[in-house]
Amino acid sequence: MNLRDLRYLVALADERHFGKAAERCFVSQPTLSAQIRKLEEYLGVPLVERQPKRVKLTETGEKVVERARRALQEADAIVEIARTDRDPLSGALKVALIPTVGPYLLPHVVGPLRKAVPRLKMMLYEYQTAPLLEKLRGGALDLGIIALPMPTEGLETAHLYDEPFTLAVPASHPLAERERVKLEDLKDETLLLLEDGHCLRDHALSVCSRIRLNQEQDYRATSLETLRQMVAAGHGITLLPELAAATPVGTARGLKIKPFAKPAPVRTIGAVWRKSTTRGKAIEAVIAAIRTAMKEEPKR
């Protein structure tokens, strides 16, 4: 039994497909399949149920994979310890951002990050909050950028910046003529929201919890761009984070973006990482660069 075979097994557990697992491990499918059979022979128990067009782990296989993940995480940590001791601000750092942050934050921070940590290779991913945290805990990611608060037991968190909400309304809506709006102005309006799983949906509901709104039940948007299209078509109103409102999502024809009167509702964007990480110095540098970049952003 070796680490390579454990990587093959974990990849198969993730992909549930021999071909995809082989591609992920950069080997041929027969090679991966043969190595997993050798691992089963060595352990003396079947780990995988091989069915047509379907791969399922046995009960023993599930237990082995759980421990294999931890073993691989520790093995990778050994390599990272050696690498980061030589140069803690070099190497790869796997960073994931939630969909309502990533496309709008990255244009503001990529340049400052390159200047602050030029030798650090940022590998960027996009996940909704729940799978992001799961992958972070499992060692597949080093750092997450999410909206807080969220259940982050066992993880470290740090505040990055606060982002005000804005109101998106159809261009023909009476509120489109207001210079600023209040939450009370939204009473009895139809609120459009993202689908379940997006934390922005929960934050929007929390912001509007003090007033009576009609939540549109027939639509569940998968992205902020979809929300924009629905608002522009006159189906209702929605809340957009300030950074998103400043992009083509918020400036498209048929849509008006209105700031809230002070105190405007905000969401908190933060960083999250494992307490046991070996990339602490790199994470600290990334956090510092993002904080500095967002402080220097001109207020709208």
Q: What are the main properties of this structure?
A:
single chain; alpha/beta; Arc Repressor Mutant, subunit A; D-Maltodextrin-Binding Protein, domain 2; 7-stranded mixed beta sheet; 11 helices
Please specify the SSE layout and strand pairing.
Elements: H1 3-15, H2 18-25, H3 29-43, E1 48-51, E2 54-57, H4 59-86, E3 91-97, H5 102-116, E4 120-126, H6 129-138, E5 143-148, E6 155-170, E7 190-191, H7 199-207, E8 214-215, H8 224-232, E9 238-241, H9 242-245, H10 248-251, E10 255-259, E11 266-274, H11 280-296
Parallel strand pairs: 3-4, 3-5, 7-8
Antiparallel strand pairs: 1-2, 5-11, 6-9, 6-10, 6-11
Please explain how this structure is put together.
This protein is of the alpha/beta class. It folds into 2 domains: 3-83, Winged helix-like DNA-binding domain superfamily/Winged helix DNA-binding domain (Arc Repressor Mutant, subunit A, Orthogonal Bundle); 89-300, D-Maltodextrin-Binding Protein, domain 2 (3-Layer(aba) Sandwich), CATH 3.40.190.290. The protein contains 11 helices and 11 strands. The chain has helices at 3-15, 18-25, 29-43, 59-86, 102-116, 129-138, 199-207, 224-232, 242-245, 248-251, 280-296; strands spanning 48-51, 54-57, 91-97, 120-126, 143-148, 155-170, 190-191, 214-215, 238-241, 255-259, 266-274. Helix 1 (3-15) crosses helix 2 (18-25) and helix 1 (3-15) packs across helix 3. It starts with a helix and ends with a helix.
